[in-house]
Write a structure and sequence with these properties.
Elements: E1 9-13, H1 17-28, E2 33-35, E3 44-48, E4 58-64, E5 76-79, H2 83-90, E6 96-103, E7 109-114, E8 120-125
Parallel strand pairs: 1-4, 5-8
Antiparallel strand pairs: 2-3, 3-4, 6-7, 7-8
Length: 127
């Protein structure tokens, strides 16, 4: 059996797209790009993280009528060189640090934060 990452896509639901975009671009030092609405019958606004479709997991921020941000039980972990650096940008970008950088043994380090929309996210690094 081939071993590969089965995660192909994620969505982080938001209430305020402009505020959420600023948060993620500030904390992760990346640029999100607009995606076309894939379903006109269910209008949504989507801003995608950089991606290489088929090679790694990527995703987008999504604003959609009827789907509230925050309070879900799935955590997306963003890969960092040193998660303390991104953690250090969270509060200034309007988020909150829930759990500061801590060792997870041979699996590296992690930090847990909340974005401006109330979504819990993870930051992960090997140093």
């Amino acid at each position: 059996m081939e071993t590969k990452n089965p995660v192909g896509w994620f969505e982080i639901y938001v209430e305020n797209m402009k505020r959420a975009k600023k948060f993620y671009e500030t904390v992760l030092k990346t640029e999100l790009s607009e995606l076309p609405n894939p379903t006109p019958e269910a209008p949504m606004q989507m801003l995608a993280f950089p991606m290489d479709m088929g090679k790694n997991a990527s995703g987008s921020l999504v604003k959609m009528e009827g789907f509230k941000a925050g309070g879900n039980s799935t955590i997306v972990y963003f890969v960092c060189d040193d998660c303390a650096i991104e953690e250090g940008r969270v509060v200034k970008a309007g988020g909150k640090v829930f759990k500061s950088k801590l060792s997870i043994g041979e699996f590296g380090f992690m930090a847990l934060c909340s974005d401006t929309e109330g979504n819990m996210i993870g930051l992960h690094s090997m140093k």
